[in-house]
Amino acid sequence: MIPLIVLITVLASVSATIVHLIPHSHLDLGWLRTEDQYFYGCGGDPNNVYLIISEIVSALTVDYERRAVLAEIGFLKKWWDLQTPAMKNQMKILIKTGRLEIVNGGWSMPDEACTNYMDLQENFVIGHEFMREEFGITPKIGYQIDNFGHSATFAEMLIEMGYQGLVLSRIHYHDKKERTANKELEFTWHPSSTEKGIFTHILYNHYSSPKSLHFEGLWIDNSFITDKESSCYTAEIIMKDLQNHVKGMAEAYKSDHIMLFIGDDFTLSSAERTFGSLDLMINYVKIHPEYEMELRYSTISQYFAEIYKTKESWSCYKDDFFPYADYPYSYWTGYYSSRPSLKLQIKKFADYVRATERLVAHSSLNYYQNFTKEITLNRVNKLKPLREYLALLQHHDAITGTARLEVSRNYAKKITKLEDSVIHLYEESLENSVNSLVRCQLNSTICPVLKDLETDKTPVKLIVYNPKYIHTFEILEIPISTPNIQITDEDKNLLDIQILHDPSPFFNTETSIGRYLLLLPISIQALCIRTFTISLSDYSSSVLEYSLMAKSGSISNQEYFIEFSTNNFTIVHDNKEINIMMNYEYYSPNIGDEYDGQSSGIYIFRPGSPHYVSTALCQFKNFKVINTQWVERIYFKCGSEAATKITLWKIGENKLPNIEHYIKPITDFEGKEIIVRYYTNWLHDDTFFIDSNGLKNINKTWNVHGGQKFETLEPIAGNYYAITSHIGFESGNRTFGVIVDRTQGGTATQNFKKSSKHGSDVEIMLLRKCLREDGRGIVFPLIEVAEDGTNLFVLSVHKLFIENSPNKAFELQKQSENPLQLFFGKGEEYSKRYVMVNKENNLLHMRLKDANTVIVRIRCESEDQDFNMAEILKDILPNSETARIGQLDLAENKGYGQAAEMVWGEGGSWPYDYFSKGEKRWQNIEDFKFSCKGFPLKSFEVNF
């Protein structure tokens, strides 16, 4: 018999695994309930974020050793605004002492597939603003634990924000399996060609506690009880389960330190119950060395600090983590296209927010002497709710379309309400000469103000604001109900207009576009507001009609020539010719088959068609053509399911072929996933390009993920990607591409239909209806229905291009960025033209921070590009000769370039300090120089 003291000595000599317990609660800013229902615990939802945060603060106060992490700043700010000074002070103490760690730092935990780089940046800027102002911290740990794939561009943005570590959860199951086997769940991620990287940790088993460590919840009756005499004794069974779990984790990571998350969605509403059990476990393990582990409360930064001390070598990764699949038949590529109407509304809201920020900034600066500091700050503060909500909409269940239908409707309602809340800022900029301004979605309906024109005869003011920093010339298309219209400009000059008869795609004038389209060419300076007067005329304008087209025809402008024969057309541009056959097709959503029970749903795209081949949706018919001095257009229907307009503008800056896809609501009881496919006669080598968050191009090769060939069991869904700007392919020295008007899912195939006589094609998903839910928590099927019960039709606009290089796509995309903002209203007889800058410049964005400070953003097109900030700003800023400027990091914190260098694998102390505010390095604007090398986005603070 071995003496007890010897046994304890032997066991103690065994290397113990150090387990960092990380209590957390994942707080979705909308999903199954709205963000307000989650926060207040109303609307029948048992979750209560207000209570959760309060309970965490209370539990951490009990014992100095306890730790927890929080991420969602949008909820934290909402909670903070309701607290007493005493409670606020307690929260500050917890953060300052490191017991409560704020990670990620974004207003929401953003999606990484459907989001645009400008909105991703704003999400973190607005989150960091709050953290700096209230707590004096700048979070430096990325924390993307509930996302459906991960973007290399987003990782690069985190690096440019000074982030030093990143925690992820969901990566492709095959990649996860290999990394687990090879102990590569931790690595350095180098998402660009630069040497900069970020240490990345993949969670072992999502962010949920091991089953036996769930200590609270509606269906949980579990506590850590050490009393062996009690019938409730649980210590031994919980510890055995934990020991097995920790053993598995230890085999997956290189270090003897592992990070174990305690919590789940909306947990810790009874935080003391969880912390009480963890207290007992930590002490229990201290006197039971046979479990070969040490348990300690910790935070992510404390864990990373221990890993940084080690001299392990870490693998390097340079790709992204799309697409994501958790099982062989379960690719999360459906959400790229789910709820297309909401995706477009969010994009337009982002355009509107930035346009209004520029309006406030430049009108305040242009009339600097007319505004007191209080007035200026008041105007800036009125925009803050819009900035915050735009950040919230980047949440991984908002812009993705993966929230329940009623939650998505709530997002849409709030967008409209917030847009209306700042219209008065435009009225102020017009010196209140026009009042009661309204915004109308002109792509779908006739503006009510224009309908009233026929009855009350009162002229209507059309307000056009150009938020671009360059002059623009384009044609406005305005639906009207009468051709008896005339328009005058600010000088009462009668303008040339054209009125087209506009065929309704679905013969429903209440929900479709109007009977006529008014075409108004408009030339407008950078950051200029123009006002026009629309009035009834005494005579009817000539209405231009479509004519039926024979079996073939053509349209053209100065740059493109398109020849048609039914749905086949040849496009010629710059001596390059491509033959295209366009088809509307659909996949039948899989409802489970003999291979797997996985259904297609709101997250997951799984075609159910035989051999994954799409089926023709309809047959094209009724081709009509119209040729005018300004535009040439072909209109045709596709059965009763769809209609198409293909347009070439002869004047204006947009000369690309514009294709408008009108898709009728899917009303059958089987569901469809409708695509448009552009078959071409060009070939590519299975490699195509897509944009990454609208910032840069990345190449994708069929069945290659992370640089490794992988034969997927879902050949279509497994090669689908999110398109936020464009998709295309190269064929020799020629490039074909499609620019989209919102995020959509798609791919480019090389003759996937073996029977096709065509070469490569591009397919883009337009609308989805899935009658089975996909088993990922949403419970309900994917159906697009308006609040009044009517089905929603979808209008998508694609622009085709033929160029020499894929990089040309970004230059072409600029035409669609920062679109003109249109308003209608009633006002006095006179009109004025308001010009807020005297010359064009190449800024990306500018906003007022306060009465004497502006934030300036630029986007470098090349590393050799030169920006003369003094020259750009001297005509914009008052007192520009004495202005001082400093460069910020991408989250617009001070101290750009001052972060300590991170060298993983050499040991030593981790140089992490999120209390460091950075040093503001001011320079006179005349002396200021910076480099466009490295990451293309740059932010600056200018004080004048």
Automatic annotation (TrEMBL):
Q: Which positions, given as ranges, span the membrane?
A: none
Endpoints of the signal sequence: 1-16
Question: Which Pfam families does the entry link to?
Answer: Alpha-mann_mid, Glyco_hydro_38C, Glyco_hydro_38N
Q: Which UniProt keywords apply?
A: Disulfide bond, Glycosidase, Hydrolase, Metal-binding, Signal, Zinc
Q: Which residues form the Glycoside hydrolase family 38 central domain?
A: 330-415
The prosthetic group or cofactor this protein requires is: Zn(2+)
Origin, by domain of life?
A: Eukaryota
The record's section on InterPro entries has: Gal_mutarotase_sf_dom, Glyco_hydro/deAcase_b/a-brl, Glyco_hydro_38_C, Glyco_hydro_38_cen, Glyco_hydro_38_cen_sf, Glyco_hydro_38_N, Glyco_hydro_38_N_sf, Glyco_hydro_57/38_cen_sf
Which GO biological process categories is it annotated with?
A: mannose metabolic process
Keyword ATP-binding applies? no
Entry note: cofactor: Binds 1 zinc ion per subunit.
- An annotated Gene Ontology molecular function: alpha-mannosidase activity
Q: What is its EC number?
A: 3.2.1.-
Q: Which family does it belong to?
A: Belongs to the glycosyl hydrolase 38 family.
Q: What is this protein called?
A: Alpha-mannosidase
> What organism does the record attribute this protein to?
Blepharisma stoltei
